[in-house]
Design goal:
Elements (H helix, E strand, L loop, with lengths): L2 E5 L3 H13 L3 E5 L2 H11 L3 E5 L7 H9 L9 E6 L6 H7 L3 E5 L3 H23 L3 H13 L12 H17 L12 E8 L2 H8 L1 H19 L3 E5 L4 E6 L5 H14 L4 E3 L2 E3 L3 E8 L6 H17 L4 E4 L8 H14 L5 E10 L5 E12 L3 E3 L1 H10 L3 H21 L6 E5 L2 H4 L4 H12 L6 E6 H5 L2 H14 L2 E7 L6 H4 L6 E4 L1 H4 L6 H16 L3 E5 L4 H9 L4 E3 L9 H6 L13
Parallel strand pairs: 1-2, 1-3, 3-4, 4-5, 11-12, 14-16, 16-17, 17-18, 18-19, 19-20, 20-21
Antiparallel strand pairs: 6-8, 6-11, 7-8, 9-10, 13-14, 13-21, 14-15
Bound molecules: ligand C2E and calcium ion (2 copies).
């Protein structure tokens, strides 16, 4: 009898699925969380697993990953159940090796159809293997699990072996060196390569064309690599390259540059030219670590660093990325005193409206001037403030300061001007945010519509239903809401449609060289069109050149902020700048 395991924390859904399956003659096992589901699968090895994604104690992805690490369970057909809102994450599930997914609510026929299709496929695979000679089966299975079907590259499962082969042969080479020749230190560099903004490319091109593009990318990497080493496809859009042993750091840097240069030529796809950028991080054996997992992790950190710097570049791992705990501890103590010591200041960056070229608002941005360390970036200390629980205090400080400043400027005659303040995830989830905010508005005598709150999509999608409710409550106060850094997360605009936004801010990483970067310009034009359809205003951040500005304006963007027009400046600089005159008009547009 065919046994099916249902892993689902929602009792109602689980019981419903069970009922349908029992009626159909299947034997059913149930688990109410990821942990017990994984255990049950390992003990009983069901014929198929149906698994929810969002669950307490191990989510669906983690369950699938664990099962795939185990020979007994790795081949069990696996179907994800997903709520509509999580659908955009499904690619992640399919990449991990799920066989199918169903979006809740699904019909009985959809469920049974998916299950029987998977079971048929699996049993024919099993039969095929049962009829063949054992060694051949072994090698085929090996080929199946160690090779990625899409790119025909080895997968992460093969990484350890490949790495050992390379290290072994480099050791041999060093033993065989001619006696008396100078001692050479061999290094084996491990590269982690991430495609810049590939999620967005997929969203624009569609999954099928994006797959073709991805194959072409893998092919180009193979050509660049030649026989210099091996390429492994990691999960998602990442690759790992291991170079045969080299003797100098310079040859590592040269190779990294060769990879970057190799992607300067666009890809041609259905008459379109598509530029693909990549961020590269490198960790070196034995300097940075001896173990391949740790090396890869280090290379990954360096890769993220390159990406943060704007992508399309490489970065060697340095131990500094693992910021020493002691260093963080002292920063933490300092941050607790920083407000009291008045080391934290608010700067303001003007926002310009394209329609009339006027300054219609400013974004308040925190600055921390540490007495010894100098300026500490908000990207570092905001995260720290969240972690150590002082973000409420910091957030309250900015809100108050920004509102006070706005009042002063209004009293000096400034009109039609909106102040924007960033809200971090933790601040947004503060229980009494609504009261605090109305208190600040009243205390400073500010009209609610003159205040805008900027929230990032990652803050909102963590728990979308609650976030929507909280946002709607904030909107009843009358404040305006902007979605910040749009494009850096995974959410689609149509998903975000349920949120009551007024403004969409395109992340600055998309704006960079938008006039020459085809992929980004396609994305931005699509975002602008969709946002307008949803009645949102679109602001581009990080505009640094006139060409970028012209492009944005031409494509219907409503406004911008960026160094081209002004850096974030102190309140006094802002006050004495020409844009404080209410009739000020920029000559940039
Ligand atoms: P963000 O909200 O995306 O802010 C925009 C960032 O882009 C600012 O960085 C700004 O200085 C920078 N920027 C503006 N124009 C340009 C440009 O033309 N080119 C480039 N390359 N950059 C430009 P900043 O001030 O370092 O802030 C970094 C992040 O820290 C902010 O990103 C925001 O997420 C966070 N942050 C800053 N102040 C606050 C705050 O008061 N509360 C919270 N929760 N987060 C804050
Ligand atoms: Ca912002
Ligand atoms: Ca941003």
């Amino acid at each position: 009898m065919t046994t099916i395991l249902i892993i689902e924390d929602d009792d109602i859904v689980r019981k419903l699925v069970r009922k349908i399956l029992i009626q159909e003659g299947y034997k059913v096992m149930e688990a109410g969380d990821g942990n017990s589901g994984t255990k049950l699968a390992q003990e009983k090895q069901p014929d198929l697993i149906v698994c929810d994604i969002m669950m307490p104690q191990l989510n669906g992805y983690q369950v699938l990953e664990l099962l795939q690490c185990n020979q007994e369970t790795e081949a069990i057909p696996f179907i994800f159940l997903t709520a509509k809102a999580e659908k955009q994450f499904m690619r992640q599930g399919m990449q991990l090796g799920a066989d199918d997914y169903l979006t809740k609510p699904f019909t009985k026929n959809e469920l049974l159809g998916a299950i029987s299709a998977r079971l048929t496929k699996y049993s024919s695979l099993k039969q095929r293997y049962a009829g063949e000679a054992a060694p051949q089966v072994d090698s085929q299975l090996n080929q199946l699990t160690n090779h990625d079907a899409l790119t025909n590259l080895p997968t992460q499962l093969a990484l350890r072996d490949l790495f050992h082969q390379i290290v072994q042969s480099s050791l041999k080479a060093s033993k065989n060196r001619v006696p008396g020749s100078p001692q050479q230190l061999y290094m084996v560099p491990v590269f982690c390569i991430g495609l810049d903004r590939f999620q967005r490319v997929i969203a624009t091109l569609g999954y099928e064309s994006a797959t073709t593009l991805f194959q072409a990318i893998a092919q180009r990497l193979k050509e660049i690599m030649g026989s210099k080493g091996v390429i492994v496809r990691l999960s998602g859009d990442d690759f790992c390259l291991i170079l045969n042993a080299v003797e100098s750091k310079q040859s590592i840097l040269n190779f990294a540059q060769t990879v970057i240069d190799g992607f300067k030529e666009p890809f041609s796809l259905e008459e379109q030219k598509i530029f693909v950028g990549m961020s590269i991080g490198v960790a070196i054996y034995p300097r940075d670590d001896l173990d391949i997992s740790d090396l890869l992790q280090n290379a990954n950190k360096a890769m993220l660093q390159s990406r943060q710097k704007g992508g399309n570049q490489y970065q060697l791992f340095t131990a500094a990325f693992n910021v020493g705990k002691s260093n963080l501890v002292s920063l933490e103590t300092d941050l607790r005193y920083a407000i009291r010591r008045k080391e934290i200041k608010v700067h303001y960056q003007p926002k310009m409206d394209f329609q009339n070229g006027k300054i219609t608002g400013a974004e308040a941005l925190l600055r921390w001037y540490h007495p010894e360390r100098g300026a500490v970036s908000p990207d570092t200390f905001i995260a720290l403030a969240e972690e150590i629980g002082v973000i409420e205090e910091v957030g309250e400080f900015v809100l108050n300061k920004a509102c006070q400043q706005l009042k002063i400027w209004q009293q000096n005659g400034l009109k039609d001007f909106q102040m924007s303040v960033n809200l971090s995830a933790r601040q947004f989830n503060q229980l009494n945010l609504h009261q605090r905010l109305s208190r600040i508005l009243i205390d400073n005598n500010i009209e609610p519509q003159d205040l805008q709150l900027e929230l990032t999509e990652s803050t909102l999608v963590q728990n979308a239903e609650v976030a929507i409710r909280r946002l709607k409550a904030l909107k009843t106060l009358g404040v305006s809401i902007a979605i910040d850094d749009f494009g850096t997360g995974y959410s689609s605009l149509s998903y975000l449609q349920q949120f009551p936004f007024d403004v969409l801010k395109i992340d600055r990483s998309f704006v960079k060289n938008i006039h020459t970067n085809k992929a980004n310009s396609a994305i931005i034009t699509a975002i602008i069109t969709m946002a307008h359809r949803l009645g949102l205003k679109v602001i581009a951040e990080g505009v640094e050149s006139q060409e970028e500005l012209d492009f944005l304006k031409k494509h219907g963007c409503d406004g911008m902020q960026g160094y081209l027009f002004s850096y974030p400046v102190s309140a006094s600089e802002f006050s004495s700048s020409p844009f404080m005159g209410t009739n000020f008009q920029s000559d940039l547009i």
